[in-house]
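dumping these here so i dont lose them again. two proteins, back to back, each one seq then structure tokens. dont judge the mess
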Amino acid sequence: MNQVAAPDTPRVGSAEAALLEVIAQTLRDLHGDASVAPPVSLDSFLDRDLGFDSLSRVELLLRIERALVVDLPEDTLARAERVRDLLDAVEAARPGSVRGAARATAPVQRGILHDVEMPQNAGTLLEVLDWHVATHPDRVQIIYLADETQHEISFRALAQGAEAIAAGLQHAGLRPGRCVAIMLPTSPEYFQTYFGILRAGGIPVPIYPPARASQLQDHVLRHTGILDNAQAALLVTVAEAMVVAHLLQARVPGLRRVVTPQELATLGGALHAAAVRSEDIAFIQYTSGSTGNPKGVTLTHANLLANIRAIVQAIEVTPRDVFVSWLPLYHDMGLIGAFLGTLYVGCPLVVMSPLAFLSKPQRWLWAIHRFRGTLSAAPNFAYELCLRRIDDALLEGLDLRCWRLALNGAEAVSASTVERFQKRFAKYGFAPEALAPVYGLAEASVGLLFPPLGRVARIDRVQREVLSREARAVPAAAEDSTALAFVACGRPLAGHAIRIVDASDNEVGERTEGALQFMGPSATCGYYRNAVETARLFHGGWLDTGDRAYMADGDVYLTGREKDIVIRGGRNLYPEQIEEAVGALAGVRKGSVAVFGSADPRTGTERLVVLAEARSSDGAKRARVQEAISRAVFDVIGEPADDIVLAPPHTVLKTSSGKVRRSACRALYEQGRIGAATPTARAQVLRLALGAIAPRLRHGLAALRHAFYGLYAAGLFSVLALLASLRSEFAPTEAAVWAVGARAARRFFRGAGIAVSVRGLDRLPRNEACILVSNHASYLDSVLLLAALPQPYAFVAKRELRAQFLAGRYLTRLGVQYVERFDLKRSVEDANRMADAVAQGRSLIVFPEGTFVAREGLLPFLLGAFLAAARARVAVVPVTIRGSRSVLPDGTWWMRRGAIHIEIGAPIYPTAPADDVFASAVKLRGEARAQIARQLSSQPE
């Protein structure tokens, strides 16, 4: 049953309740599936929110009149924009109604925020924000801490800032479905930019700003691959990062513009809010892959909201909670877990820069104290940093009794860190059960495993040798000093499932280590424009996490990344255990140790390499440190390392979230670049600038070739179109006009070198009228069908084309049926006229999407063509066009070379009873759209 939600609770038996039920039932009939029908409220727009086109709106009004026994005014069809307008019309039509007068003097009062009040029916993040703006616009959602000041952002301010940036993005040329990179530090502008990109119809791609000048070259090279893969059109950054931004722009041909949020907000112009659906991409999270093969996890609005709702349920978040965060917003834990999660619930987010935390970790704890934070999250290293870098004197008076849940995730959780943090901060009111190890990954949006609330973290000690050789997690004796310790990360979120499998994808038993896989509504559909890695990700319906784990008593214990485990002599060695032991040594920089395997062709196994950043450059001290590392490694695994490399600070490479990049460190080691002098920032800039010359030249030549081809194709089309128009003036019949146009169209495609293939011509009905319905992706689509079809059909086109001088005259002679798009009454009349034409034996071609957009995928189908088919009892023939969007993209008249495929499907005949035209039309529409969607997905453009 579709859920009906309204700001005002409808009275039982009232006109309001009856109206909402009629609308909900009509939507269920339109969609054929209650689960996908949009939610209904009095403030829902009939077209934008509920998807009623002019003809389905006629059906809705008829049902309202029958169900509520009223005679609605004639102008209701044109004037009613929202459900509330329909209610006013119903009340006005009822005898003795005073509804209108009462509403004029008693406006609706919005309720205050209750614990259970959340945007449960929102299908997109934009709808979540809109819901909060409508419900409590001035409620503070974000408190941004900078130095000793704080900046408060209400829902209204967030929405207004986002709209200004969205208008600026559209003014800068952003088209729907294109990616926009965000390279901003934590700031109020970040939140507004993210939602501004969504509001403009773009896809946000968070990337991190350069941390140090010494890493400039590595930063630019890594992000060049990301921006190129994303085909980012714009980059939003701060003025201070413009040098890096322009270096990226020089290496990424499609990156047309680099702007600041302030520049976007002042560009002005009216915002044309894009239609955003739940299945649209809400952002792309690039994981820490190699520079040559970036993996961008595509996450839709539906993915994110499913994950957020499951997390909210698991940890019982309410609007009374307060989340305190320093997590970077370019990482999923900070963006989704902190920002979007709190936005959904409506609880305040107190946020500070990651640099503020890293320089003085006590700022995090004092922010929790000051704002009475109840929730916070961080990787394991943050808890370790609090243990090592904060003196007791800096914690005098600290009160952490408010902190009900400290989530520890995003990297391997250390049992030692958990136990020591619980013990040290207990005297400041921190409850041991508040520290909750969790597990997630970008491919699952952010969260996957959570422990039950109120439980002290479980730590499992297992026999090292049995696990490393036999993959069995056998409990170790208390006195076993070589035991491995793993922390339980809990159970899957509601609606999600996990399994642990062996190398053959067979599930393993309790306490047996294997590969961790998952499925659920927050799972990504794959990596953006990376089919190879996407294929590796999926195992049937299961997604591979890339992690190894085992189950024990219902809990999942993570043992390490599959790609990072070192296999030496038949044993699995776990880098985290060795890194933790080495990092605890005096003279070694904590968190700056990388352990990895390097292939040894002589032995056929891997060499164990320990790369550690040393604090001292003194030879004697370094020798002692190296000896201490050797002993520590032996104590942990029972055998020595093959190579121990001491390196200067900042040698160990890390991801944006602080994880050690072991594969990158291995490459550094194998290339012999450990300890090599780092070029100055100026030298790196010069090298990058020189390296960008060749790609820019190649891009320039390609653009020149494209321009010449586009000019040639446009000229050829214009000449042939003019000749066809002139010849058609002397054609005696519509069939002759069709033949002239078809010959010109075929000559154009041949002359332009555009290959057009057609399949399924034998499926066209012979000697009977029908309606061809096709997807619409380009202005070329009509010309394509003109060239491809063997017999004349009448196109159905928008009425505005009739007024064009040459095109309008030719189309009229071709027999085009014009329909009205804006006047609802005339639109209905035109649809009836279309049905009459079909009934009289005229076959039609209709583009039921009504328009086309730049992004891939089908738009909703309007009902007119299918009502005409249902009334005339004729077949609907689905036609799928693939490739035209690439040959002539939206927003340009410059064509590109390419191949176009046209697939004519099997006819679909009305099967519903002849007296139920509406039901028959809905069924025809659903079957035709499903057939076209299948064809599009079988061979994407």
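---- next one ----
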Amino acid sequence: MTQDLTKQEGSKPFPIVGIGASAGGLEALEGLFAHMPSDTHMAFVIIQHLSPKYKSMMGSLLQKHTTMKVREVMEGMVIEANCVYLNTPNQNVVIMKQTFHLLKLVKTHGINLPIDYFFRALAEEQAEKAICIILSGTGTDGTLGLKAIKGAGGMTMVQANPSYDGMPNSAINTGQVDFVLTVDKIPDALLKYVLHPYIKHPTAIDPPEESFQQNLQKIFFLIRSGTGHDFSNYKQNTIRRRIERRLAVHRIDKIENYVHFLQQTPTEVEALFKDLLIGVTNFFRDAKAFEILQKHTLLLIKSKVPNSPIRIWVVGCATGEEAYSIAMLILETMDELKKHAEIQIFASDLDNEAIDYGRMAVYPESIVADVSLERLNRFFIKEDDSYKLKKQVREMVIFTQQNLIHDPPFSRLDMVSCRNLLIYMDQPLQKKLLPLFHYTLNPNGILFLGSSESIGEFTHYFSIIDSKWKIFRRTEVMLGKISNYPSIPFFDAYTSKQPPSEKTVDHHGINLPNLVEKIVLNDYSLPCVLINEKNEVLYLIGHTDNYLKAPAGEPSFNVVKMARDGLQHKLSAALHRVIKEQKTITYEGVQVERNGDIQTINLLVRPLTGKQLPQGLILVIFDNQISAKTVISHKTTDIESDPQIASLEQELQSTREYLQTTIEELETSNEELKSTNEELQSVNEEMQSSNEELKTSKEELQSTNEELTTVNAELQSKVEELSQANNDINNLLASTEIGTIFLDNDLHIKRFTPAIKKLFNLIPSDLDRLISDITSNILYENLYADTKTVIDTLVRKEIDVQNQAGNWYFMRIVPYRTTDNIIDGAVITFVDVTQLKKAEKSVRQLATIVSDSHDAIMIQDLTGVITSWNKGAEQMYGYSEEEALKMNIARIVPDNKEPEALDLIERLKSGKVIEPIETKRITKKGEILDVCLTFNERVDDNGNIVAVATIERDITKYKRAEQKYEKTIADLNKQLAEMKEKY
């Protein structure tokens, strides 16, 4: 059946399961494949930590537990289903187009991480079909690779209750593990996952689009109700794949049933929310992009005004690697320029757990694959199997939970980094966020996007710094265009006092000049100006210099400020009425002064409305085609002759000047209020940042307090241990009865044991005195000189000395070494060897007796091999000692006596006492001797017999004399008997 299935499916893609294992992995792998069917239609790739010089026997061991083929990975090998593949030593395994490729290890600053290496390649190759399993092992290898597979939409599993929990726990701590199971339960969960319809045949069961959309909106509602976050503007393909993966994880066959499951299971809402966030990142992702970015941060820091902070916003920071990467980049750049400034990096994300992880700033050892040795040494502290960022870097980054769509943004920024976030959002949302980034950036600020992202149609907002790595610079645009940023909830509060309107539409792409020119040419054919709701000039048509002028001081496009004398108050009033009444306002006979001349015009102010027009556009038209006399000279009017009229004109002029002053003051106040409002907004942001900093500081203080408590407990324990060790040492030195003196480099006494008082007249007050100043009763005059020599040459001195009472002591002088291997004086010890000397004397005497004895004295082991042979044995048997030590005792035992000899050995081994016996021996010349044997067993420390010592005395002549005597007696008895018979 399995073969039929394989043939039927042919070359269809099949799941590839990456398995990472290290210490304790053999037992886990055997248990895993013992429960794994052989017809899963999956391929399993096992990546282990292998010694470069060790040939693994994993293949033969694993083959006993599975009927699948177990193969070693080879270059160019095509992956097949229902096979188990093993990595090779000293090479990293990658996969491309269902084919294995091997890469030789490159010596780097960090340890090799073969599991991470393969998992990342698997994520790129298989995407949502990728599956990884992390089994028993030490360290953190596999953690970053697991995150990459999760980010690609794959499935992740970890062994529960492993023999070594380093790798499994590191993976679980990422919060991105789908299953934590014992090895016997992993196969069942794995098979149910890959056989789920959404994984096996995703297109075969697709529900109708309308039905899917309805259920999708329900899911969005449940997520928003449970977490407060709306995903309706995210790309639906991505959302769909993530939801389908959750269906496969929970073995739910229909999306309608999953909606019901979400309603009943609040924890699944949170799990789906985390899946949709796709919080996958790493340090210096796209290293080349960071190299280019560093060049432009250098220019940014150079141009920064002294005492002005550098403010950076990292959007969608996940667990903080990117924010810390930028922090390290800034520190390196400032050191290069030798110019330092305050750095504020705001790192925001929706995922509160990821934010907390980033605040801890502790990352697995596997980051060595992304961080250079120089940066590791400079910015990190090694802690067991992890790296912790130093406080200098941590303090630069302020983490905060933030919803980019609804929460207020940061402002006055020098850089915004939003990498690989926009690709998950649909076009309307992207069009809202890019103007937002433009608003938050300072002039010439930097926008840093992901390699797959772009600014789209907003090329007038940003200029390109690097097109490949998507680095842009903010460009200045007309204020009118800025005011028409697309409407998003938090943006209206910053850009307009008007509430969002349903009629508000995006005017980008409309040719405003052509539209206005068409209206004016058809209706008026007069000079006019197009303005926005803030009275800012957007476009000019015709000759308007008779009515408008450039204001003095700071350049301004405000049409009221640009209006000439006589026109300002009418124009201001007309604009106010147009905004309020939303209809065309006309003022006739308006007198406008230019260079001392006055012309009379009609002023028309018309609101522009329509479905295709942005809100707030106003057209101001200057009509100078009136029948009355248009130009009146001040010097030729008749009214100057009337004093009353002149007085009224003067009063009117004063009133106008006062009114103009009032208007200017009001405008100044408005500008100040705007500035104050912006400052308050900035203060609010800084307060938020300070609040986050205080929260972080509080957490750090709590952590520090816990650390201090722990350290205090450890110190207390160490003090007790030290006190106990000191007592133990004192008792040890006192109980050994070995006289010891500790001297410093100048041979002053630092310490001594009680036993030394037998040889030296020492009292406690003698500490710090020279050893040569102390009287002793040893008969040795070179103690001071020899000790000095030992300290200088580091060669120990050992000698036997005698005291005045005649007792012998073994004296040893050695250098005193500290734990850092530094010579800090000398140690002199005296061991009483008087009894040993006496014993040696006795032994020498006994050895002389044994050696010179005429009896043969020998020692043999329990197999009969001779181990000792004295001179008496040489004389008796004719073998020299050199010859005898190569012999077995059987050489000198006659053949008919061998059973007797073996029986004697067995009787000795059984513990029986053997009395002296008489037996036969044969000499080197073949002569048979009569000998008397005395046995003595030799035992080891446990009382076991290990050898036999024998004393053998030659009694041949006595035997022969005895035989002769017996023969003589026999002869005499015979003669006596014969005589008795005769007589």
